[in-house]
Structure formats: C-alpha cells, structure tokens
C-alpha cells in the first residue's frame, strides 16, 4: 500500500518535469500558475523559487500569508470574550431561583436562545417556563431584566417569555378529542352546595387570564351549573357532520361543554345512562390543544365519578369544602376514592371561610374543618376563600380570587 505523506517544507514545489507534461489530463505548471494567479486573492503570495541548479526554469511555490496568524489570534480572542460574556449572563441569571423546583432557572433549562453583542452591550434571550400560566412569570421577567442589566457592559436587555410545548398525557390510548390535552384537573366536593362550580369556573378563567389554553367540562348531568355561570353567545353544542364529534361552545377564550348546552336542560335518567352521556360528551368533543381541562365533578362518589376517573387519566384533583363538620365527612370519602383510583389530591379549597365587617373577621360556619382534611388525609395545601358578594356567579363569576400561592401547586402537577 502506498502511503501519502506531506512534505516537510512549508512550501509545495511543482517541478516542471517532462513526465508531468506528458501525462494526459494534467496541465503543465505554466497553466497552474495562470489559474492560481487569476483565482488567488490580492493578499495571497505566489512567488517563484529559484533552484540551486543551473537550470533557468524556476519552480513555483505557495508562501503562507503573514496575516493568518494575526487573524487566528483575533478569532481566538473574540471567542474568549464571547464565552466570558455568556458566562457573565448565565451566572447573573443563576441568581434567580424557582421556588417550586428549588433550583435556579439556568439549571432548570429555562434560558433559551441567548444572543450577545458585547460591542453594543446588547443581550437577548428567552425564558421558557413549564406552563404558559406560571403564576410568577412576571416576577421571573422582572428579575431577569434586573440581574442582566446590572452587568457593567450591558446597555440593553431583551427578555421574551414563553412556555414549553404541550405534552399530552397518554396520547396513544386516549380518544382523538383528548389526545392534545396536556392536563386534566378534577374539581370535586363530594357534597352539593359548597361552591364547587364557582371554584371550578374561577380557576379556569384565572388560568386563561394568565395565558393558558383552557376548557371546562361540566360533568353534572342532573344539575348542570355552567349555563348559569357563563353566558356564551352560542348556547347550543354543535356536531361536526363529517366525524360526528361535538364542537364546544366558547366564552371569553375558554371552551365549554355541558349537558345544559345540549338543549335538554337537566337530565331525568338512570345512572348507567348518565355515565354513557358523560363519556360521550367528554371523549367525542373536539377540545383541540389545551393546557388545562377543568372537570367540574358532580357531587358524590358513585358510578359517575368512578367512570370519569377511569375514562381519562386525571392529572390531579382539587377538593372544595366548607368549614362545617358535615362537609369534612363527605370530603374524606371523596379523597379516599381518588386515592384508590391513583389520582393525587393536591389542594383543598375551604370556601365560605370567613367574612370581614367593621374591622373584624367573622367565622360563621366555624373553623378547623379544612385543617383536619390536610392533617388527617395528607393533602399538602389548604387555601381559604372568604364570603364576598362579588364571588357570586350572578355578579362576576371569574374574577381572580386565586393568588399565586393557590395556583402554584395546581399548575405544577404534571
């Protein structure tokens, strides 16, 4: 095997030999010279090399450009400066800690598309959060601007906020209408009249107001509440004639499905039929891409509730109760049902907790029921909602009554 090796000299001589000129398809050195002279840049040097022999025919060689070493050094210096500037920005951003993950936003992988122009002092990047409705995204944006602007060479900071693409759960085994839904959250009380539907609607519209794509499914066929709480222009569900799927109605950007929008009012039917109706409404609806589908569960722990938990994989459940001891007994049954069905209960909302008047706070229904649920049933978070006229669904059903602490644990469940 013939081994090709490079000459030891930095010059590449082309000898004008008779052998080379006679080989077919190979141009003589004079032709190479003409071609190289025509195509080389003005900074390239192509000079004749005088042979020590008496022959008057020169050999030609390439000489290395003197500027190349300087350019390499400049390039390396520029790369070092760029690396140093990037390190400065990332170190500054690593001061911002996500309170739920307990890590900085750089370690969490939130910083994307970092671009730096150190000469003009410009820095731009994108913060990709886990959910479009992150309750502290505004705080992250403010802190990111402040820490990067604090670098001595930075004159302009541009921060763009975004969210990770939806990650549908069990897309391969779900009905087509639910395959692009990321999180399905059940709002349950296991007892009627405690404000479950009010909490569900307020939660849904709070999430939508924070940028999430949200839908509400009213699973109470015997007494649907959604038609009373919202007033969409189209109050009837439509059917797609091609695939016979249900097209949800919509109000203020939130998709809505309820038996009350089916033109039948309240149902008068036996349990097995109700389970079939709920299954059809939930699984054949064209929900589209949703970050959160809020299910307003019917009261109780019977066939309908079990069917809902088995038809779709619920991300989590939020339990709604009131301070009375009777509510605590019913809620305990519901929590045990979700536990057996492997659905995590992430929060308890104690509705009608208190009201303020004349500078004093009153507890008309007593105290301690919600805390007992947390302590005895192991639910990690308890939130209370006061008695306020503005919370009434007949006045304003979807004002933001959920602060960032309330939503934080509901949003980070998946």
TrEMBL record:
GO cellular component: chloroplast stroma
A GO biological-process term: iron-sulfur cluster assembly
Pfam family name, one: FeS_assembly_P
SUPFAM superfamilies per the UniProt record, alphabetical: Fe-S cluster assembly (FSCA) domain-like, P-loop containing nucleoside triphosphate hydrolases
Alphabetically ordered keywords of this record: ATP-binding, Iron, Iron-sulfur, Metal-binding, Nucleotide-binding
Domain of life: Eukaryota
Family stated for the protein in its record: Belongs to the Mrp/NBP35 ATP-binding proteins family.
Protein's name according to its UniProt entry: MIP18 family-like domain-containing protein
Native organism taxonomy: Eukaryota, Viridiplantae, Streptophyta, Embryophyta, Tracheophyta
């Amino acid at each position: 095997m013939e081994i090709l090796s490079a000459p030891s000299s930095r010059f590449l001589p082309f000898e004008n030999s008779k052998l080379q000129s006679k080989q077919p398809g190979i141009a003589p050195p004079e032709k190479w010279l003409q071609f190289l002279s025509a195509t080389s840049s003005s900074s390239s040097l192509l000079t004749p090399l005088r042979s020590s022999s008496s022959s008057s025919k020169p050999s030609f060689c390439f000489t290395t450009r003197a500027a190349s070493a300087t350019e390499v050094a400049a390039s390396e210096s520029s790369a070092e400066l760029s690396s140093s500037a990037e390190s400065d920005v990332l170190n500054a951003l690593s001061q911002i800690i996500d309170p739920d993950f307990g890590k900085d936003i750089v370690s969490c992988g939130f910083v994307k598309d970092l671009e730096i122009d150190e000469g003009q002092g410009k820095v731009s990047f994108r913060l990709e959060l886990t959910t479009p409705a992150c309750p502290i995204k505004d705080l992250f944006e403010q802190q990111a601007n402040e820490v990067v602007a604090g670098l001595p060479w930075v004159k302009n900071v541009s921060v763009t906020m975004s969210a990770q693409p939806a990650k549908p759960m069990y897309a391969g085994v779900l009905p087509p209408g639910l395959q692009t839904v990321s999180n399905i959250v059940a709002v349950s009380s296991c007892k009627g009249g405690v404000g479950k539907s009010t909490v569900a609607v307020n939660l849904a519209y709070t999430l939508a107001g924070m940028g999430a794509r949200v839908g509400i499914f009213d699973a109470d066929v015997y007494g649907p509440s959604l038609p009373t709480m919202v007033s969409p222009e189209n109050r009837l569900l439509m059917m797609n004639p091609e695939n016979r799927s249900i097209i949800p109605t919509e109000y203020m950007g939130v998709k809505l499905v309820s038996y009350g929008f089916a033109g039948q009012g309240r149902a008068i039917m036996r349990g097995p039929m109700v389970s079939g109706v709920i299954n059809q409404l939930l699984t054949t609806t064209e929900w589209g891409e949703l970050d959160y589908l809020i299910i307003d569960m019917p009261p109780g722990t019977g066939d309908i509730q079990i069917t809902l938990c088995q038809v779709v994989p619920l991300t989590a459940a939020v339990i709604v109760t009131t301070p009375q001891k009777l509510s605590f007994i019913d809620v305990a049954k519901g929590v045990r049902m979700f536990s057996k069905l492997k659905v995590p209960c992430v929060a308890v909302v104690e509705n009608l907790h208190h009201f303020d008047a004349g500078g004093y706070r009153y507890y008309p229904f007593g105290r301690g029921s919600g805390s007992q649920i947390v302590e005895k049933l192991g639910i990690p978070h308890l939130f209370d909602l006061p008695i306020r006229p503005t919370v009434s669904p007949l006045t304003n059903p979807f004002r933001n009554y959920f602060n960032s602490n309330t939503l934080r644990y509901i949003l980070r469940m998946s």
